[in-house]
């Protein structure tokens, strides 16, 4: 019963096998990198708009980012504990005293310049159990 | 002839079918696109307003431009309230009331009148532990520290008699009058809560059924949450970095407001000071209470209550909570005798989740 | 005809009858097999594809496209599930050209089960791609080998079934 396999079948099956093996390799790689990487982005937000966006992994120690905001300049620097505001020509300079940020949801705020620097997870569906913080 | 016509249909047949097929695929994709536009989406905007960080998240099926317009309106609303309520802005309607203290009544528009009414009500309720007329005291401390010194005890003694809500008259004609000359209203302890209240009204008008607003740590939760999950609000750990929750509560259609002294402490003349003033002494508060979180339907009331709770401490606060049905509270303490502990009212028993084992959790029966 | 074999196609009247019938059967089996529990979400037996293949074998690419389009639009109206529609649309957008091209161009040297297996492969690749795009979660793609392994088996079986059905139907309908 049924028709016998044809000449080309073997070729097609080999192609499918190659695709399958490639998908196995890709999936292995994906699972491996997903475990290692954290996919965090550093964002500078001014008046609700993201004015600067940098991959956290691309930040080496002591690399700095300069942001012009609210009529002044804020300078961020990456360090071992995360990203910190190292210089700001605002009055008060509260942002300089804020702790370094390195994980999803962390923020540094410069009120006089209306600047928010935050760390965000790139994936939209980050299963964080907390929606917001009261303090 | 016959041959030709039959070939004609042979060509036309599959083409027609192809056309129908392409049209129906386009139709399906069209329906799909329209449907995605109708599905609930989440938009978030962070900004700085009312001198603090404001984050607004809307979950709605409305088109994105409409949601962005609503976000614009929310931030405009906060800006407008900030202008009206600021004690330090000389042009604000509040400053006019302060300037005319002991001289004449000043006009208070809808929002200002409404916030003063709520402020006075909570002041009466808390026996002055929260008091909007604390302004004369905050002004003295600000003037003093601005010059790098602590205010003198004479200054404080002269400012204290000016504090007291019995000196604030609100007329039915929409006017406000401070009877004592030199008295000052400071809405710092209620402005954010009132802004949240106004935002909730705006969201209702616009038909947004699900939203989460965080105004410098004061939270308004509209609706049951994001999708099937209730909103979850973390309460800041006093000893850990910003963003580290000590515990979390589930929130639906409520407001969660925290007053705390663990963060904005400042140092002068060899000791640390907090930024919450006790209306009865004129000095910044001291004590083992690190933060008081109030969960209530009215964010303005919750805001003022959280300040009052910081002033009177957990024991008297819990007494007060007995006569405040529908209001829940979570206190975080660190005392020499009892160590680190969290006191909570039974209303949050089912929704409170602890993350930090160092703190002992106790539910206090207030009913 | 560019057909490699001397198989005859259905008449246009026959087509008029075959397309709605295959679509209806595909929808019904599609719904029925969704009730059949399988160990992983997104994994399907794919019996409904028998009717796509049947349309392709008996009546040609145009009919296969028509059956696919009808099935997609009607099952959307039946289920109303946008997410799963988007995923199966993406899957079919890939699997349909694969089966049509393989059948029309290389039909002479390929058996139906092999074509069906390739088509099932394409379907799962398209489906997973859609899920990744819609959820923005690339790690879901790691799940693909599992789906492909299942697709090889079900695709082959479905092809075997379609082949047998097509042979029987052709005999019954006296098309030869």
What does this structure look like?
The complex is a heterotrimer of chains A (135), B (367) and C (176). By secondary structure, chain A is an alpha+beta fold. Chain A is 21% helix and 36% strand. Chain A contains 1 helix and 8 strands, in the order αββββββββ. In chain A, a hairpin with a 2-residue loop joins β3 (64-69) and β4 (72-79). Chain A is elongated, with a radius of gyration of 24 Å. Chain B has a domain at 42-61 and 211-363: ApbE-like domains (T-fold, Roll), CATH 3.10.520.10. In chain B, β4 and β5 (175-178) form a beta hairpin. The model of chain B is unreliable at 1-11 and 34-38 (pLDDT under 50). Chain C has a single domain (12-172), classed as Arp2/3 complex 21 kDa subunit ARPC3 (Orthogonal Bundle). Chain C is an all-alpha fold. In chain C, 50% of the residues are buried. Chain C has 6 helices and no strands. Chain C starts with 11 loop residues before the first helix and ends with a helix. Chain A binds chain B through residues 45, 47-48, 98-99, 103, 105-107, 109, 111, 114-116, 118, 129-135, and chain B through 45-48, 51-53, 55, 57, 71, 75, 212, 214, 217-219, 225-226, 231-236, 241-243, 245, 248, 256-258, 260, 263, 291, 293. β8 (132-134) of chain A pairs parallel with β8 of chain B.
Short structural summary:
Chain A is of the alpha+beta class and 135 residues long. Chain A has one helix and eight strands; from the N terminus they run αββββββββ.
């Amino acid at each position: 019963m049924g028709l016998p396999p044809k000449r080309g079948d073997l070729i097609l099956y080999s192609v499918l096998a190659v695709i399958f093996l490639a998908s196995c390799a890709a999936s292995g790689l994906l699972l491996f990198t997903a475990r290692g990487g954290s996919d965090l982005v550093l964002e500078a937000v001014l008046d609700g708009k993201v004015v600067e966006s940098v991959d956290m992994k691309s930040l080496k120690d002591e690399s700095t980012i300069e942001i012009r905001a609210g009529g002044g300049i804020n300078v961020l620097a990456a360090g071992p504990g995360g990203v910190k505001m190292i210089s700001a020509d605002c009055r008060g300079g509260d942002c300089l005293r804020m702790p370094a940020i390195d994980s999803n949801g962390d923020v540094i705020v410069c009120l006089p310049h209306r600047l928010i620097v935050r760390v965000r997870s790139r994936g939209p569906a980050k299963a964080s159990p907390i929606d917001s913080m009261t303090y | 002839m016959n041959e030709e016509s039959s070939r004609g249909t042979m060509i036309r047949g599959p083409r027609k079918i192809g056309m129908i097929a392409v049209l129906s695929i386009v139709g399906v994709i069209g329906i799909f696109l329209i449907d995605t536009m109708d599905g609930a989406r989440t938009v978030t905007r962070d900004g700085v307003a009312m001198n603090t960080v404001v984050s607004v998240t809307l979950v709605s099926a409305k088109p994105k431009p409409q949601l962005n317009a609503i976000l614009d309106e929310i931030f405009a609303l906060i800006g407008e309230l900030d202008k009206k309520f600021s004690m330090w802005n000389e042009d604000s309607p509040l400053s006019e009331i302060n300037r005319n203290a002991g001289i004449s009544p000043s006009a208070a528009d809808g929002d200002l009148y409404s916030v003063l009414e709520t402020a006075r009500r909570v002041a009466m309720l808390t026996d002055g532990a929260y008091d909007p007329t604390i302004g004369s005291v905050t002004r003295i401390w600000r003037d003093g520290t601005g010059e790098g010194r602590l205010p003198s005890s004479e200054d404080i003694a002269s400012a204290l008699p000016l504090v007291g809500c019995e000196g604030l008259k609100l007329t039915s004609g929409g006017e406000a009058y401070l009877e004592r000359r030199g008295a000052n209203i400071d809405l710092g302890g209620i402005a954010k809560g009132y802004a949240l209240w106004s935002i909730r009204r705006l969201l209702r008008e616009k038909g947004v059924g699900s939203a989460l607003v965080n105004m410098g740590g004061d939270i308004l939760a509209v609706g049951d949450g994001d999708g099937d999950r209730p909103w979850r609000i973390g309460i800041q750990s006093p000893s850990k970095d910003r963003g580290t929750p000590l515990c979390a509560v589930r929130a639906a259609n409520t407001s969660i407001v925290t007053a705390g002294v663990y963060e904005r402490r400042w140092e002068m003349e060899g000791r640390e000071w907090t930024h919450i003033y006790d209306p009865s002494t004129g000095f910044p508060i001291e004590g083992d209470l690190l933060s008081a979180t109030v969960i209530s339907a009215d964010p303005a009331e919750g805001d003022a209550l959280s300040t009052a709770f910081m002033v009177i401490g957990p024991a008297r606060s819990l007494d007060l909570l007995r006569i405040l049905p529908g209001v829940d509270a979570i206190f975080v303490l660190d005392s020499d005798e009892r160590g680190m502990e969290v006191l909570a009212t039974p209303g949050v028993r089912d929704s409170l989740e602890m993350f930090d084992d160092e703190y002992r959790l106790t539910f206090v029966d207030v009913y | 005809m560019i057909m490699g074999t001397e198989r005859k196609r259905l008449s246009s009247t026959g087509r008029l009858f075959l397309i709605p019938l295959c679509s209806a059967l595909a929808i019904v089996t599609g719904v029925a097999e969704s009730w059949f529990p399988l160990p992983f979400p997104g994994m399907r037996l794919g019996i409904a594809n028998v009717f796509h293949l049947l349309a392709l074998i008996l009546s040609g690419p145009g009919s296969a496209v028509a059956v696919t389009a009808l099935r997609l639009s009607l099952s959307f109206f039946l289920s109303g599930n946008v997410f799963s529609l988007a995923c199966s649309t993406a899957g079919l957008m890939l699997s349909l050209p694969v089966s049509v091209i393989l059948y029309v161009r290389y039909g002479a040297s390929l058996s139906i089960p092999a074509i069906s297996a390739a088509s099932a492969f394409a379907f799962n690749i398209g489906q997973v791609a859609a899920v990744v795009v819609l959820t923005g979660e690339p790690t879901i793609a790691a799940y693909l080998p599992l789906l492909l392994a299942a697709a090889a088996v079900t695709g082959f079986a479905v092809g075997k079934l379609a082949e047998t059905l097509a042979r029987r139907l052709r005999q019954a309908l006296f098309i030869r």
